[in-house]
Amino acid sequence: MPALPVLVVAVVVIVDVAGGAGMVWLPLLAAGPALAATTNGPRGVLGAGLLAGATGSALGTMHGTPARDLAAVLCALLAVTAASGLASALRGRRERVLAAVRSVAEAAQQALLQPVPETVGPFRVAVRYSAAAAEARIGGDLYALVPTPHGIRLIVGDVRGKGLPAVGTAALVLGVFREAAHDEPDLLSVVGRIERSLARNLGPDDFVTAVIAGCPGSGHLEVVNCGHAPPLLISAAGEVEALEADRPTPPLGLRALSGQAPRLQRLPFAVGEQLLLYTDGVTEARDDAREFYPLADGVARHVVDEPARTLTALHDELLAHVGGRLHDDAALLLLRKETAQEPVFGPSGPSAPEAPLRTATGSSQPATSSAQRVTPPEWIRMP
Fold first, then answer.
1. Residue 322 reports pLDDT greater than 60
2. CA torsion, points 96, 97, 102, 105, in degrees to nearest 10?
3. Quick one: pLDDT at residue 368?
4. Which H, E and C letters describe 34-50, residue by residue?
5. pLDDT of residue 364
6. How confident is the model at residue 106 (pLDDT cuts 50, 70, 90)?
7. What is the edge-to-edge ordering of all strands in the sheet holding 232-234?
8. What Cα–Cα distance (Å) separates residue 167 from each residue in 75, 108, 137, 329?
9. Which residues pair with 127 in a beta bridge?
10. Paired strand residues for 221
């Protein structure tokens, strides 16, 4: 039996005995089974009701309460106990349904936002993802990293809208990206595949902002920005630079309206440098004074050689900035080049010194085996 209903009954007994008030305090015994319904099942409610009824009968007899008045009190206790037992049963049913829905959401997250490898060849990766809804597991933000015969390729994006339609669009984008990243040797061709798929499946007002990047193994970085927030390039010395696009490019799904094709940026990517991709849920997070979170400044304060530690510090500071709860989905993906060794491309894909494949940990990332989720090229040895 829960402690709170027993405490309520005990307080009523003490007050009644000490004050000698007779019937005045007896109706308060109904609070016992009512409170039990919030934490216990029907059996706990029944136990609290029996305790309250026995206590009321004893107190009424001790004070010489008329039988009619005592019967009225006991009938009220019986009614409250019955109603509380029904409420407890309905609450338990809702909790079971919610648990089933959560398990489905967990499975959906594992299928949609697959774990990314923590170490891929000469690179280390970390991811942090937080859904705005307290009970949500997935939302409209998306990310993926795919080791391919053309080097590693990654995407971070944000779907217009919220709810299940946004999740469906995110699943579409990620599915096309993972397939095209393996098939297309050119990064712009990957973007073209996603654009054509969205043009067939999205409504006229729907779109996706995204940054698609790749490291083809020639000592440089390729970036295509489709209406998204500019990535941050972090030098080995800790200097932070926003990679602004040379020419504005419309989001994915809107190319037909603007007639503008995306452009490819090629940048050197040396050992010790890092690339941070993120969504607007990070940069548009506001504090009580309505000030945006200064991501570049936060990166400069917290950047270290371990991407996971950097993102953990950023995520904690972001939550502190907004007071503990985000109002929009937020995703962060950090890529760091660890060594100068580059994969050598052959007929069956790249090859390079072996490196273990581990799963990047995150605040909302489930602890599942990345070996089941990522198909690495030959130059990554599975653990």
1. yes
2. 150
3. 35
4. HHHHHHCCHHHHHHHHH
5. 41
6. low
7. 119-120, 123-130, 330-337, 274-278, 232-234, 240-242
8. 52, 10, 11, 12
9. 333
10. 267
